[in-house]
Structure formats: C-alpha cells, structure tokens
Predict the structure.
Amino acid sequence: MHRENPLSQSTVPFTFTIFGLLLFIFVLSTISRKRNGATKKAPAPPEASGAWPLIGHLHLLGGSKPPHVTLGDMADKYGPVFTLRLGTHRTLIVSNWEMAKQCFTVSDRAFASRPKSLAFEVMGFNFSMFGFSPYGSYWRHLRKIATLELFSAQRIEMLKHMMESEVKASVKDIWLKKKNSASEKVEIEMKKLFGDITLNVILRAVVGKRLVSEDGDDDEESQRVRKAMGDFLDLSGSLAVSDVIPCLRWLDLDGQEKEMKRTAEELDEIAQAWLEEHRRNRNSGSVTLTHDFMDVLLELADQGEEFDGHDVDTTIKATCLVLIIAGSDNTITTLTWALSLLLNNREVLNKVIHELETKIGKEKMVEVSDLKKLEYLQCIIKETLRLYPPAPLNVPHESMEDCIVGGYHVPAGTRLLTNISKLQRDSSLYSNPLEFCPERFLTTHKDVDVKGQHFELIPFGAGRRMCPGVSFTLPVIQLALATILHEFHIVTPNERPVELLEQNGLRTIKASPLHVILTPRLSAHIYDEI
C-alpha cells in the first residue's frame, strides 16, 4: 500500500518558512538581550544623600544660595554626574563640559524633549509655546518657521535698521533729559533703559509694536505688558507643589495655579488684541512694510497651514509671546551684568572705550555694520555670558529613552539639568575662573563661540533644543552696549563699586538696580541730529 511522504513538496516550503521565522526571532531576541544586558550592566548614577519622603531633595535647594550654586557644591562632592529626586521626579545633574557634550551630541535625541510642568501647561497655552513643548512634529515645525522667518541671516539684515533706530531713540531720550536739566549729567537706571531698547526691538520684529514712547514714559498698555511678562517669568521660574507631588494638584496648596491662570488670561488678552489688529490691517490692505513675524504666521495660516493640528490662533499667540518673553529677558539680563562688570573693572572699561574711539571715531554713532570690527567688545560679552549665563541651569530636558551618560545608565523619563554656571567656571577649563577677564577670548579661548559648538561655553544651551534666537540676540546686545559705552561717559553714584549679588532663583538676575551717571561724550550736533 502506497503511503504519502510526510515531507512532500507541498510541506517542505512551509517547514522551511517556519524554521526561518523561528531563527529570525531567536536572532532578534539575542540581540535585544545583549543590548538590554549592556544597559543593565551600566550602574545608576550616584544619588545625593539627604532625600526626604515625598519631596526628595527639594529642601536642599531652598536655602539662601541660588540653586545653581547649591548644585555646584554638590557636584564637588558627588562628581559631574549625579541624581536628585525633586518630588517624584528623578533628575540628572550634569556639571562639566564632557558630560554636557555627551548629553547634547551622542544622546541629543534621547534628551530632546521637555518635562511637562504646571507653568507651561497653564501659561504656555497647553504647551503650545514651542520652546517648552515636548519633542515632536509640532516643535520641529514651529522652530523651523521661527528660524527661517525671524532668525535667519537675511531677516536679521532686514531688521538691523530697526535695532539701530531703537538704540538711537534711547540715546536721544537721555540727551533730551540732559538738555532739559541744569546739569551736564543724567542719572539712569540701566536695567530699565536696556529693557526699553530690548522690548521695543523684539516687539517691533515680532508684532510690529512699540511699548515705550519717545520720551521714555510708559503708557497703560506698556505697564500692563511689562507686568504680565514679569509675572510669567517669575511663576515659570518657581516650582509649584503640584509639580513635585502631582496628585495634590487639585488642592492648589500654594496658590500657584490660580496666579498662573490669572497671568495666562492677561497674556491671552494682550496677544489676542495684537492678533485682531493684525487681521484688521490685513483685511484693509495696510500690512506694514516691515512684515513682522505675526504677519508671516497669519500669511501661512491663510495659505492653509494647520500647524500640526493645533488651533491656529492659539499657535500664533503662543509662538509670538514665547519669542518676546524669552528673547527680551535674556538680553536685558546680559546687558545689565556686562555693564556692572565693566564698572567694577575700569581697566577693561578703558580698553573697550579705546577700541570704540579708534574703530568708530567720535563723529558718528555705532551701527550694526561696525560690530564685526569690535573684537574686544565681543570678548567682553562672551566673558559676561561665561560668568552669568541667563539660565544657569539651562531649560530642563527630559529623556525619551534609556541612554548612557558618563558610563551611567539613565532611564527614560529622567529630567536633565545642566549646571552651565558650574561648567563655565571650571578651573580645568579657565584659569582664574571667577575673575572677569575678557582677554582669555583673545588668547587661550580665541576660537570659542557661544553658539553651542564649544561645550566649555554654552550659555544658550546646545544640541537640537538650544535657544534658536542667538543670532538675533547677540547683535542687539553688542549694539546696545557699544552705543552706551561710545556715546556716554559712565560712572556709578559717588563712584561706588557695583554690587554683584544674584537674586535667588532659576534665572541669573542682578539682585539690586544698576543706577549710573551718564555724561554725553560726543559732539552736541550728533545728539541733536538723531
């Protein structure tokens, strides 16, 4: 009797298919086990001692020292990579350039997201402010638009006349105050002056508005905008109880959410008024010749741009607000520290004045085209940013996947704080790191810039989430500082040293005002012709 062969032609291909599939699964599982094994073999970073239940290490950051100073002291004890528990959140603290480079090169994508916080949910239009939004297509798209339409070299070239006109307006205001008084000198609070210049430049670029009148007096709208922006910065720089222990959010124990909602409503009303004004202008055919950034976003919306599924009006308002608030704060902070440091270091001040007199002369005002000639001035700004970066702990990142930093295993969901202040004051990188010495950027650090490529100097961050507005911010800082130094002789009241105390918080803010006495340095006709 004939029996059918169990390995007939119809069965053999099926058997080999099953065998091949099993082999493929075995190989994949082996590779996966090896990768997981390699990750698991890496030890966890050291954790600081002294954690308390529920709040973790938060109590260690609540002293009189700014958080970046306290964390710098802890780095001396635990090393350049260690972890804290800030409430329920594991947080990696990185404090030297090698570890920062690993985070923002090898592991750049892993750390490309932002942690969700109450502030940026409530005041950031539910994370619609792209600088604080999670990693994804929305963030990529809005950043690309901002980079091309506001921060590109072509766009900045178009805006340089605006920068010059705002700086000149402030100089004219000082000159008029001097002419209207019996004295040759004028006392000015410089943080306010730098704020006027910076806010007007960035507001004109983004929404085509000026907040300060020619005589320097704030109207009601100016005061309202300043207060709302200040409240946003203060609230976003503080830690709400619900950020530490999310399950307690419904209680709003510290009242932070209530204050954030009030500020969010105020900012929304301000931005909505700007948006409606732009729409009216577009409908009437009277779009400004400068074609500000809000006009660009509206034009994209008219062309069918959907902003990755987000509400169009919300996206436009959130994007414009974050550019204005972040850009102005960083610029004002840097200018205030730079002038404070110069007034306490008269040799450096005299040297930069000599550069200005030699390369600009005394018969004209500084222009944007002159800035490339002012090498020593640029070194002063680099040194200021080294000693007083605007965000000394950088904006927090959050890992989207497991990674290795400094040989340590960092699991997904870990928050990252880069102690830029500690990193940039490292004695292994800079000799006499606590001293104000701009000359180091003419000699040992001549080729170092601040654009995220040299990890010994990253005041604006690094990697794909670094501040996109560096190319806009730097010319404003350089032009404003160069103009004040060139056009006026500057001393402090009674020629006292400037106090270089930092306000306690997450931003590097000078604790006290900066009052100076300005005396016009150039010929009178130059000021009269402004």
The beta strands are 81-86, 89-94, 186-189, 397-398, 403-405, 408-410, 415-418, 488-491, 515-520. The chain is about 50% helix and 5% strand. The chain has one domain: 58-528. Residues 1-39 have pLDDT under 50 and may be disordered.
